[in-house]
Amino acid sequence: MFGDSNAFSSFSVNDLQAAKEFYSEVLGLKVSDNPMGVLELHIQGNSNNIMIYPKPDHQPATYTVLNFLMPDLERAVDALIVKGVTFEQYHTEYLNTNDKGIMYGDGHGPDIAWFKDPAGNILSLIAQR
């Protein structure tokens, strides 16, 4: 029933203009305004766009809302640090990041680094293998 349907992902932000600037200028994505008053992220290789919508009582997601597969994770992290992005630091039993914010899977999962958009939503960069 749903296997043949088109689907897309969406998430909220508290400031649409700040989101537009972040996703276009910092992350370098193609961003367009949608007639419904939302933003569309156009990511090469995705058949559907990702929608970002304004929500006055927005609460940041406590989980990762968007993952980017990166051929060179270290280079991508360094490039975003130069642009002012701060990567999350985790030091728990299951998550342990280095000074840059990269967690190495060491064969037990992917190498990954988490950061937040201006609305506090969690995004990640994952090493593409």
UniProtKB/TrEMBL annotation:
Residues 5-128 form the VOC domain. Gene3D superfamilies: 2,3-Dihydroxybiphenyl 1,2-Dioxygenase, domain 1. Coiled coil: none annotated. It holds the Pfam family Glyoxalase. PROSITE patterns: VOC (PS51819). This is VOC family protein. It comes from Mucilaginibacter ximonensis. The lineage of its organism: Bacteria, Pseudomonadati, Bacteroidota, Sphingobacteriia, Sphingobacteriales.
